[in-house]
Amino acid sequence: MNDPTMHTHRTPDVALWDQYRALREQWTHEDTLVNHRVSWLILSGGLLFTAYRAEAATAGNWLALAFPLFGMLVAGLIGVAIHAALAASDDVRREFERAGLADLAPLAPSSRLARRGRWAAKALPFVFGAMWLLALLGSLRS
Asked: How many whole angstroms separate alpha carbon 17 and alpha carbon 23?
């Protein structure tokens, strides 16, 4: 009844599962960081735009210049943080594939369509930066 020849499927080594869980946890962590950083970008951009529209026109020219400059700085810094988390996520995926863990259990789809889902996180800092640049140019014109 306990004949080892009866089993045709070999259970993967516990160490492989431990490595899988560790890499999966790291990958999830990096994905969460991207999510939080995109949320920070949207929230800070929205708050800054609201304050800019409410105060810049009435408070004088220095605020009309300061808000866009600060907005571009925030978009740039958060953009760097987003790209760092995406690069770390790519590193985790490469380690996962190098270790042969994709045969054990796939981490996530790696199709072209799935990679396109990262475009928004990559592009949003540039979109916010461009909007702030337009606001700055508009302030300089007036």
From this structure: 10
Distance CA 142, CA 134 (A): 13
Ordered DSSP codes for 74-113? HHHHHHHHHHHHHHHHHHHHHHHHHTTTTTTS--S--SHH
- Tell me, yes or no, if the pTM score tops 0.85: no
Distance between CA 78 and CA 69 in Å, rounded? 14
Would you state the structure tokens that stand for residue 60, as one six-digit string? Answer: 């004088």
Give the residue from 139, 136, 105, 130 showing the smallest Cα distance to 17.
Answer: 105
Quick one: which of 107, 104, 105 has its CA closest to 10?
104
Residue pLDDT, tens place only, 115-137: 788 899 999 999 999 999 999 99
